[in-house]
Amino acid sequence: MNLKTGDKVKFLNAKGGGVVRKIIDPRMVSIEVEGGFEIPTLISELIRIDTDQPGGRFFNESFDVSTRDEPPENKSPEDNRMMDLPRNIINSRKSEDIFLAFIPHDQKWLITGLLDVFLINNTSCDILYNYIRKNDEGQYTGVDYGSVFPGSRLRIATIEREELGKWTDGFLQFLFHKNTTGELMPPFNSEVVIRGAKFFTEASYKESPMIEGKGIVVKIMSLTGYTDWKKTAGEEKIQRRPEGRKKELEELIFSHQTAPREAEVDLHIHELLDDPSNLEKSEILEFQKRYFTRCLESAISNHFLKVTFIHGVGNGILKDVLLELLKEDRGTEVFDAPMQKYGVGAIEVRIRHNI
After folding, report:
1. Domain segments of the chain: what residues?
2. What's the rounded Cα separation, in Å, for the pair 118 and 100?
3. pLDDT band of 288, cuts 50, 70, 90
4. How far apart, in whole angstroms, are the C-alpha atoms of residue 111 and residue 254?
5. What's the confidence (pLDDT) of residue 54?
6. Over the stretch 223-265, which tens digit does the pLDDT of each residue have?
7. Which tops the pLDDT comparison, 44 or 322?
């Protein structure tokens, strides 16, 4: 069924109906119902009320929804905002990732002119997305929402350079859907911060097989390893795991054991992952935090006395994060690791309730 803005519709599986106010994507529209609220709804769950058609009068119903003129440029579900990714990209992917991309209209003068903003879904899931910003008063404002098919990219906006701040500083939320899956995919919520100076340096624009021409492509998330964790109000919470995963967690610390009831864990990302090159800095930090927490839990449950965590020197962010996490555990004591062996790049965690 083809719908356009202004069409009057009824819900198939619920009472009532309303008026189509926005075409979100080829499968979903936004319906204004009584009270002025708008509800994203699948087109397959709607029936258009057309009194000009035979039998249409039997479906007619009055809704307390104001009528208003719709701009002629509103697009139909057949618009070309969504495009399939090249088949070779889908077939050769090693991980399932979601990206935000900025593609200049003028491929000769990359740092001037209009930009297309794309959300790229290189996963096997349908995703529902919500992009929001926080204003100066601390309130959240919705910028855009919709859905993207698996293995496709969606043009969510065409913007002037002056509008970049609206799209490079905000928050993205995702819900994931598969017709059949062996595990529940938790919602995803993350802050998006991209340096504005990047858009005015030609070297920042690079060729990517997922876009046409040159652009700035930023990875928002990777589904790999994410299903074990859920972000809620800025906190990481471990989800319930099958028994096999539980056993794996309990035994994790033994892979780092250096002496009876002692272990050493190097948290440098290249020691934890074979190829971390495709991760953003925020993703690396989250992975290190999760690995630290899992190792500490495993050490406590296996009655270890001491674990040395190597965090490196760097800018000190990882060390600060670890110390903050350890404040919540009253059963541990934290010391600087021996300087002659580790310099200032490690901490020693002693587990008091295992002594």
Report:
1. 1-74, 82-223, 241-354
2. 6
3. very high
4. 52
5. 46
6. 765 544 433 333 333 333 344 444 555 678 888 888 888 999 9
7. 322
Query: What pLDDT, on a 0 to 100 scale, did the predictor assign at position 168?
Result: 86
The predicted pLDDT at position 240 comes to 37
Topology of domain 82-223, per CATH? Answer: Immunoglobulin-like (2.60.40)
Rg (CA), the chain: 25
Helix (H) / strand (E) containing 46: strand 46-48
Going by the DSSP 8-state scheme, the letter that residue 15 receives in this structure is: S
| CATH code at 1-74 | 2.30.30.140
- Residues in a beta bridge with 144: 131
Quote the CA–CA distance of 170 and 143 in Å, as a whole number: 9
Closest CA to 289 of 334, 324, 258, 261: 324
DSSP designation for 276: -
Express as a percent the part of the chain with pLDDT over 70.
Answer: 81
**Exposure on the CB side of residue 332, measured as CA atoms within 13 A:** 24
User: Are 120 and 90 within 8 A, CB to CB?
Assistant: no
DSSP 278: T
At the second CATH level, the architecture of 241-354 is 2-Layer Sandwich (3.30)
Report the alpha-carbon distance of residue 201 to residue 13 in Å, rounded: 52
Query: Of 159, 283, 158, 163, whose CA–CA distance to 231 is shortest?
Result: 283
Q: Which of 5-14, 105-114, 244-253 has the highest mean pLDDT?
A: 105-114
Nearest CA to 126 among 241, 27, 7, 274? 27
Written as six digits, the tokens of 205 are 């624009």
